[in-house]
Every structure is written in C-alpha cells, then in structure tokens.
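Pyrroline-5-carboxylate reductase (Halobellus ruber), 257 aa
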Amino acid sequence: MIDVSVIGCGNMGSALITGLSRAGGYRITAYDVDPEALEAISAHCDRTTTDLGDVRDSELVVLAVKPDIVPIVLEDLDLRAEQTLVTIAAGVSRARVAAETGATVVRIMPNLAAETQTMAAAVSWDDPDETVRQMLSDLGEYVEIDEDRMHVATALNGSGPAFVFYLIRAMQERAVAEGLDPADARTLAAQTFKGAAETVLRSDRDLDALIDAVCSPGGTTIEGMEVLFDSDVDDVVGDALSAARRRSEELAGDDTE
C-alpha cells in the first residue's frame, strides 16, 4: 500500500485522485483549502483535510496546485529527505521547488485522462523513482524526458486533450448536421479517436502507413483526406501546440528549466 497525499483538488488533482482510487493499492489523503472541493472527491479518498500538516508523513506528496500557488504551499510544507514531492505545475522547475523542500523532487506533466487510467504523462527526475514509476504506470502511459523539454510536453500531452476534444466536437457537429442523432454522433466520434489512438500505440507502422491503410483508391476516405491535404490544418494544429508551449515558457519566466 502506497501512502500518497494530493495537495490541490482542482480538475487535475481530482483526476489523479480518482485514477489512483480506481487502480487500488493507494492510501490517499486529499488536501484543499476549499471544503466543497474535498467533498466532491471524498468518495475516492481515505482522508480529506484542510490542514497541510496532515500530508507531511506521506511517502509520496503530489503538488497539484496552480504555478502561482506553489511558493505559498512550499512555505508551509515541511518534508523530509526520504519523501518524494511530485510537482505538476506548468513552468515551475524542479530546481525552484527543490530549493524550498528537503524531499526528492520529481516533475511530471500529466493530463485529465488520469481519471480513467488512460493518462499520457511526461516525467523528469535526477534518478528514477520506483514509487513514481508505479503511480504513472497505474494511471496510463509515460515517457521520461529532459526537463528542458517539459514546455513541449506541457503543450502536447498536457494541453492536448482539449485540442482533441475540439476535433471530436467538430466531427460530432458535422455528423449531426448531416442527419445523425447527437448522442450517436458523440459516441462514434469519440470511439473513433479512441480506436485510432489505440491502433497507433499497438502498431509498428508509421502514421503515413496507417493513413494509407484506411484509404482505398476512389473510396470515401481518400475523398475526405484530399480536403485535409489541400488545407492548412497541419499548420493550425501545430500553431495551437506552439502557442501552448510559449505560454508554458512565459509562466516559467526567469525560472531555469
């Protein structure tokens, strides 16, 4: 049983708590200054608290607050060298956090799919931490990256779900406009993205080969693909990612990555 405390029960903190609860094997303490936030997540916790002192004995402490709140929490958070502090704050370097705590600091960029244990995450550390490895594996898939690539990961897998939701909505809405029932269109659009993503993860073929596999000469798919090929959609999607990456860099300010 792994003792884990999550500081901050907003969208991302709640997603982590819910995913860990569903995975099993975790004794979870949730901390927030908002009793309503704690009430909303209480079914997935062993304990909820508004007292920061209650998280100080956990083996693993996850700092899931907004970047501007990090210094305020760290000022009152007294951890020991044998503990691990995991920070998910965009633009806040490990060095900046480590300067305020005695614990080992690991930085991750998760996403909301932690709730369904299908998360994509990036992790940066000095030395691999087996407890953090276990947590990330229980919540989905993860990659290890150098910390100076965290801005890109923040844009790709951190912000990326919103970009995907946007595309799912666009496909759903057009299908409805073409006559499909809204609920049916939502299911088919979402499951299509899910199935395509699973195919990418399980296949050895590159993305061009997978596109070709769906496109029969003279068929429906190639007709639609020609519209995409003739558009600037690649640039638009890329620009959205770059904008998110730049914002992560702005949040970091003079902080060293």
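The chain is about 50% helix and 15% strand. The chain has a mean pLDDT of 94. ok done for today
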